[in-house]
Structures are given as C-alpha cells and as structure tokens.
Design goal:
27% helix
Length: 267
Amino acid sequence: MNGRATYRVRPAFTLIELLVVLAIIGILVGLMLPAVQAVREAARRMQCQNQLKQIGLALQNYHAAFRKFPPGGIQVRPETPAGKQLAWSAFVLPFLEQAAVYERIDFRYPFDHPINQPAAATPIESYLCPSTPRSAPLIRGRGATDYGGIYGERINSTNYPPRGVMIHDQAIRFRDITDGTSRTLMISEDAGFPDGQWINARNLFDQAFPINRAPAFENDIRSFHRQGANGLFADGSVSFLNENIDLDLLAALCTRNGREEVPDLDR
C-alpha cells in the first residue's frame, strides 16, 4: 500500500435525467389531482346531504310540536305590500339548536327591519352547502342560505293555487301531502341565489327549469355539485337529484297533491 486513500466517484444526475424525473412527477401529479378533487367534492356533497337531513329532522320535530310544518313564508312581498317576508328557515331555528338566534328575532317586524339585523347577520352553518364558493357566509349583510322551500312547479302548470309544501301564509300538514311524503320534495338546494338569506322568504320557488339550468335571476333547484343537486323529501329522506331527470317526473316531485304516478327513487 502506498498510503493513499482511494475514493469512488459516484455518478450524479445529469440535467436531462433531472428534467425527465421532474416531468414524470408532473404527469403523476396531473393524473392524481382530478381524483383528489373528486374525493373532496364527494365529501362535500355528503356533508351537504347531512345538513339537509338535519333540516329535515328539524322540520319533522316542528311538525310533531305544532302538528303542521311552518309556512314557507309569511306576508311575502309584493302579495303583501310592506309585508314581514319572514321565511320557514327562521321558524325552525329552535329545532336546529339555534334557539339563541331565534330569540333575537322580533317576529312583529319584517325580516329587513333594523331591529332584526343582528340576528339576520348570524351565519347558520346548517344552511350553507360546503361546495358553494363564497368569500363570506353573508349576502348583503344577512346570513346566507343555499337551501330553498318548494313552492310548486311551473314546468307543466301555472302553479296556481300553489301546490308545493312550502307556500305563502299557509302551514301544510302531513295529511295535505296526498301524493305521499316519500314522493314529495319539500326543500332543495338553490345555491348561489342573490336573495338567498335564511331569514328572507325569497328562498321559496316553483321549479320551472331542468336542474342546474335556470337563469341566474330565477330561484330553482341548482347547486355547485356535479351533475345534480340534493333534495329533501317530506318524510325526512334526502336524495341526490340527477340534472338529467325527466322533467315530468321532476314536476311531479315538486307537488304535494298532483296525483301523478311517481316511481320509487333510489335513496
């Protein structure tokens, strides 16, 4: 031995090899991203369904307490000029564990009266779909909602008198839903509507368009989920409504007493 240390030179990555590795990683990330986004949206859709189930349970408990559902809205404008226009979603707050907010509402005054502003400005998590993009949980200073009451349908009729479960100044009972509670929509997603405030009875509508295809100025069944929207039935069950659902079937689901033939839905 000559006493000199022997070193093995390890080959390093060349620039071309490094670029190839980075390209492969980029391709893998590109392939994985849609799958990750799909999983996240599936979780958000499930959370939305769970929130509708909470609303459904609150409405069932309201009916058990008062032997009727709340009216969809009271003294709704312009039918009642300068009316209170208070919504069903305000009346069921105690059954959503929001009694403190409910007690701050003075039901002698309209939804937009200054005395009701502090309560109206309270976000209610159960009324917010996690798939709806928003910078704040408020719309013009009042708590937003992504869920609206079914007033009836205008696909095949004029909806006069209204044939939904959530209508103006009238409380519907189970016995009034002659089409069957499991075949009658009561609440559905109406995400992103400009007047979607939980205290404001503008969160009612009669369905007039295919799901997710109404113009922006119309209340209708719509969501930010892919291919459909969630709906709550009068028996408390929740279903995802495909946006390609037959329009006659959709119209039938939106009426409480249309006597239509409605098949069983997958739940």
